Amino acid sequence: MKRIVPIVLAVLVVFAFTVASAGQMSLSSPQLEPDGRLHDAQVFSGFGCSGKNISPALSWKDAPAGTKSFAVTVYDPDAPTGSGWWHWLIFNIPAKVLSLPENAGDPASGLAPDGSIQSRTDFGKPGYGGACPPVGHKPHRYQFTVYALDVDKLDLDANASGAMVGFYLNQHAIDKAALTVYYSR
User: Which of 95, 109, 104 is nearest to 74 (CA)?
Assistant: First the structure.
């Protein structure tokens, strides 16, 4: 009998953990390995970097009930600016869309979902801008984040700054999932 109690407790703990983690929103990419190194395809082309500047394909699942739209950001908190660096901001992604294809971050590609808006990054224009940290810096973190929002649309346009978009995202996020990769040169 004394052996059965610890086994029953262990089963209950595993069951409780499984139930608690079920339905947790997640983000993945065939081009990005969590905590791995960013590939040259996703590195910026310019500022001394010679990457291809292609946004990776992203997909997410298990958004919470009540999600009315999504947004995706890419942010480097290690940029030597005092405020980080916004590499991509795309919002007003319809709730039925659960992925972005590779290169959706190029506004000219037409691959972004209908109705979505890509706003101005710290490179000064809308669309994906890849990694390009200063030479000799420790590896920078590139945080790809998808937000599940409680509104159909953010009342912002393509001229909205990363800080403004971030403010609205944090006001309307009901869940989010992130994937971090690293890059240095």
Answer: 104
Q: To the nearest whole percent, how much of the chain has pLDDT over 90?
A: 88
Phi and psi torsions of 167, nearest 5°: -60, -50
Domain ranges of the chain: 26-183
pLDDT tens for 116-146 read: 999 999 999 999 999 999 999 999 999 999 9
CATH of segment(s) 26-183: 3.90.280.10
154, 90 contact by CB (below 8 A): no
The residue to which tokens 């700054």 are assigned:
161
Token output for 159 = 């001229």
Polymer length in residues for the chain: 185
CB atoms within 10 A of CB 25: 19
Q: Rounded to two decimals, what is the model's pTM? A: 0.87
User: DSSP 3-state assignment of 59?
Assistant: strand
